[in-house]
Amino acid sequence: MTVPAAFPWRLVLLCCGAEILTMLGFALVPTLLPTFTAEWGLSATEGGWLGGVFFLGYITAVPLLVSLTDRYDARRIYLLAASLSALALAAFALFARSFVPGLLCWLVAGFGLAGTYMPGLRALTDRLPVAFQSRGTAFYTASFGTGAGLSYLLLEGLGRLLPWPLLFALAAAAVAAAVALIAFALPPKLPVTAAGSGDGGWRSVLRDRRILAFCGAYCGHNWELFGFRSWLVAYLTWSHLQTPSALTAAPGIVAALATFLAVPASILGNEGAHRWGRTVWLRRVMNLSAAMALLVALMGNVGGHGWWAMVLLLAYAATMNLDSAAMTAGLLTETPPDRRGKALALYACIGFAGGFVGPVAFGMALDAFGRHGVGGWSAGFVTLALGIGLARLSIGLVDKKGPAAT
């Protein structure tokens, strides 16, 4: 009788720990944007560019950096990109005293994320037995939310005690620690495709209907997720002005809690996909998330309804993450190794394009319906339902017949 191998906890915790360290600076610019606006005399447009250029850097660099993991050990790409990210954060601390230097430093930090998040996932899964790749992916993608939540939480506490350049310096030190951790604790390994001879070209990826369906679904997921996270603190601040409440008095704490809820939700979501079938599960939880977004839209002012409204808002924050790991694990496990890097590159690029569109669509709804009234904020949450609706339409194509990986 064959004894099943034990889950490789040490390897998974190593990669997840490094990912968390690289994410500790994630909320720096969004949280400090009011400070930069005042100190640097930024217009609203300049503030928007400073906040969004991080994801522009990510989208620009991710197709190249992630696709290279088909040819080179993802560990090497991770180490180079993480080092670049640490330098960008240190440069922000030392030299960013106006709009243009800050914009350039934060753009380069986005390049760094492009070379650490998905390449880190590839470095992990290339070292995992096939039987453990799906669960390993769930833990790793959950660590993104853990790092982001810790970033908000630490800034809520340290932001009042330390000058902002020191906060960037501490984030740079955290990324440098991740570099050391991966360099000394994760052994080199040839990529899985080095021993194969499959066609890993872009054409085969772009013709695969399943890959494109997962990419579209990830775009809609990130539209909803980053639209919600980008406007959550502002929404709670507005709600507190309308109806002062202890529940909305510390919006940074609520934002951190909402982000932390992504961790168990993402892991449990992947387990649900194992139990009920991936596409069945994804369709159900995406429908649920759209319904929750519309409920929050109908609720309007969270502070005016008491504790149950905050529970509903946090439940929605958890619900929108029930699909994340299940989608990423599906893409990885159902794509042949020789084209996995390019598939991840396309997935990340299209997905984080949704992360850019979501906050913009929410803001446009606020401008159209009034950012100082309930109607504007309700319309903003309706745009989140539209985003996850796009994901639901895309995931419906996963099981349809079409050109498939061979």
From TrEMBL:
Main location: membrane
Transmembrane segments: 7-29, 49-66, 78-100, 106-125, 137-155, 161-186, 211-234, 246-269, 281-300, 306-332, 344-365, 377-398
Name the record gives this protein: MFS family arabinose efflux permease
InterPro entries hit by this protein: MFS, MFS_dom, MFS_Efflux_Transporters, MFS_trans_sf
Superkingdom, natural source: Bacteria
Pfam families documented for this protein: MFS_1
Membrane topology reported for the UniProt record: Multi-pass membrane protein
Keywords associated with the record: Cell membrane, Membrane, Transmembrane, Transmembrane helix
Species this protein is from: Azospira oryzae
Positions of the Major facilitator superfamily (MFS) profile domain: 11-403
Annotated localization: Cell membrane
